[in-house]
Design brief:
alpha/beta; Rossmann fold; 9 strands; 42% helix
Length: 394
């Protein structure tokens, strides 16, 4: 595994007076970008542009917000992350690798995605297929690729979370309060399934659901304006969603603020629109359809790396400090949240033994219909704090 040290001023976009965390944040973001570029280039197939554009948003969500235990990706109360624009799969594989997500399916912990797996991107039998596949890669919550499918799946997951809360939460013990995040593209939002799912989510007021829309204005055939000119924000407000607009995909502070606004919204789902540049940093292919569904080319990869202050000829480079930074972020936070949940679950079992047995039966798949069908009215999601002001433009 090749690792090296990069100087502070090598992290593009970070001022010289920035603190150590800001420099490491940018280093991690550019690691996601370069792993995606290298994997697609080596496979000579794939979609490099979107991971390069969305790396700051994905990193901010995973490192700062997502409640997810990398040691146990099956933790029942984990937040769910869905990559509906599944063609950008290297974005997810890079996150699973750098965050150290474990594969615990056979009782023995091993990495869900190794660097060697990434080097075998899009190869037969690889853990990193061209589009994410549920059951093949631990940490992948659902198979995505057909545009709009992940959007629909995410609404189902959010409904499932509300149902679980209604069935098993009690006034003195909260077992289920997880959120569902879905990344989606212009292509996703053009699909009827996404529109229908969004309408249902607004009707059900699924405040545990957040879609993050990559507004990059590019499709595989050219600019979106040739087929898609609607006002997406107005449409989603019509669906009764909360809409927040972040005008720069590299502004991680505004992205974190928008995610915080979602967490403070109690009465409806949230759409975060992020204006991005596909293939950010590639001097000749940024903002072009040529960056959507094909490798950048070896020379363009080198030039993009140069723009990041990256060693131009280094392949699959994970610089010193990146793994450790992820461990101190999502790694430690997820383990602590899981431990807290385990304490609540022990309390739940002690105070409600019959209900706990019902939950265990439900979880194992052995529960039977007992005539006590759940109410069709889903309980509202409760958050700890009320909605508050937010600076991002809505």
């Amino acid at each position: 595994m090749r690792r090296t040290s990069l100087q502070a001023n090598d992290a593009r976009g970070v001022p010289s007076h920035a603190g150590a965390d800001s420099i490491l944040d940018r280093l991690c973001i550019n690691t996601i970008r370069t792993l995606a570029m290298d994997a697609v280039q080596k496979a000579n197939s794939g979609h490099p542009g979107t991971p390069m554009a969305l790396a700051p948003a994905a990193y901010t969500l995973w490192q700062r917000v997502l409640r997810f235990d990398c040691d146990d990706p099956h933790w029942p109360n984990r937040d769910r992350f869905v990559l509906s624009n599944g063609h950008a799969s290297m974005l997810l594989y890079a996150l699973l690798h750098l965050a150290g997500v474990a594969d615990v399916t056979d009782g023995r912990a091993r990495p869900a995605v190794t660097l060697d797996d990434i080097k075998r991107f899009r190869q037969l039998g690889s853990r990193c297929p061209g589009h994410p596949e549920f059951h093949r890669t631990p940490g992948v919550e659902t198979t995505t690729g057909p545009l709009g499918q992940g959007c629909g799946n995410s609404v189902g997951m959010a409904i499932g979370g509300r149902w679980l809360a209604g069935q098993f939460n009690r006034p003195d013990v909260t077992l289920f309060d997880y959120d569902v995040y879905a990344f989606c593209s212009d292509g996703d939002l053009m699909e009827g399934v996404a529109s229908e799912a969004a309408s249902l989510a607004g009707h059900l007021r699924l405040s545990n659901l957040c879609w993050i829309y990559d507004n990059n204005h590019i499709t595989i055939d050219g600019r979106t304006e040739i087929t898609f000119t609607e006002d997406v924000a107005a449409r989603f407000r019509g669906y009764r969603w909360h809409v927040v607009h972040v005008t720069d995909a590299n502004d991680t502070a505004s992205i974190a603020g928008a995610l915080g606004a979602f967490r403070r919204t109690n009465d409806r789902p949230t759409l975060i629109i992020i204006d991005s540049h596909i293939a950010y940093g590639a001097p000749h292919k940024q903002d072009t359809s040529a960056a959507h569904g094909e490798p950048l080319g070896e020379e363009e990869v080198r030039l993009a790396k140069r723009s990041y202050g990256w060693p131009e000829d280094a392949m699959f480079l994970v610089p010193d400090g990146v793994y450790e930074h992820f461990r101190r972020g999502i790694g430690e936070r997820g383990r602590a949240l899981h431990r807290e949940w385990d304490v609540r679950y022990e309390t739940f079992q002690r105070r409600y033994p019959a209900l706990a047995e019902r939950y265990r039966s439900f979880r194992s798949g052995t529960s039977r219909q007992d005539g006590t069908a759940p109410s069709p009215r889903l309980p509202p999601t409760r958050r700890a704090s009320p909605p508050g002001p937010h600076r991002a433009r809505s």
